[in-house]
Design brief:
There is one protein chain. This protein has 198 residues and is an alpha+beta fold. The protein has one domain: Nucleotidyltransferase, domain 5 (2-Layer Sandwich). 41% of the residues lie in helices and 12% in strands. The chain has helices at residues 12-15, 21-29, 79-95, 117-127, 142-145, 148-160, 162-168, 170-174, 182-192, and strands at residues 34-39, 44-50, 57-63, 104-106. The protein has a 4-stranded mixed β-sheet, sandwiched between helices. The longest helix has 17 residues, at 79-95.
């Protein structure tokens, strides 16, 4: 009797490149909640998720879009917004009295690069009180998080050519923020969300 060829399709999320099941299993076996970070061209979001046999449970979540409610006038997709989103997630966890000994980062299918937005968010969450496990070598410089280089460039451009400055930073100006003041504005939000006093 001739044997039939059996085709086994892979899981849909694996086919679509959305889930690495081997990596997910390792994270689940740690038995700690996952700090899931997702980044797009416009936003960055974070969720604290615990595993349950009936399905993952979202304990708390934060998105960079929410920062405007707290007075943030900067962009929602940069290093500063990423850090503040991590702080916001930690603030929500404190308000809900969510406490764990350890939280493991989960960046999904995309491998984060050293000094990137994902690590800025994790640093914000850690500063806010979440026990995130992360190596020192991947931490982001405070000057990069505070957007100091952008503020310096804005200041020099403002001196040289106000017209080009107005065009280049029109979104900031429309929101009522002079990009030269971005580091100070960041510090205000950092303190408001429970970060370290600068």
């Amino acid at each position: 009797m001739k044997q039939k060829n059996v085709y086994r399709s892979r899981y849909r999320r694996k086919r679509e490149g959305k889930t690495d099941y081997r990596r997910r299993l390792k994270l689940l076996l740690s038995d700690y909640p996952r700090l899931v970070v997702r980044s797009s061209n416009r936003l960055i979001s974070a969720q604290l998720i615990s595993y349950d046999e009936k399905g993952d449970q979202t304990l708390a979540e934060a998105c960079s879009k929410e920062l405007a409610k707290y007075g943030w006038k900067g962009d929602e997709d940069n290093m500063a917004a990423s850090f503040l989103t991590g702080l916001l997630l930690a603030k929500k966890c404190r308000e809900k009295n969510i406490k764990y000994d350890k939280v493991v980062p989960d960046a999904g299918m995309h491998a984060p690069h050293k000094g990137g937005k994902v690590f800025a968010l994790l640093m914000g969450a850690a500063e806010g009180g979440l026990p995130v496990s992360m190596g020192e070598e991947v931490k982001v410089e405070d000057s990069a998080i505070r957007m100091e280089a952008l503020a310096e460039y804005a200041a020099s451009l403002k001196q040289k050519d106000k017209e080009i400055y107005s065009r280049a930073f029109s979104r900031y100006i429309e929101r009522g923020l002079d990009p030269v003041d971005l580091p100070n504005h960041f510090d205000e939000l950092r303190n408001k969300l429970g970060g370290k006093v600068v």
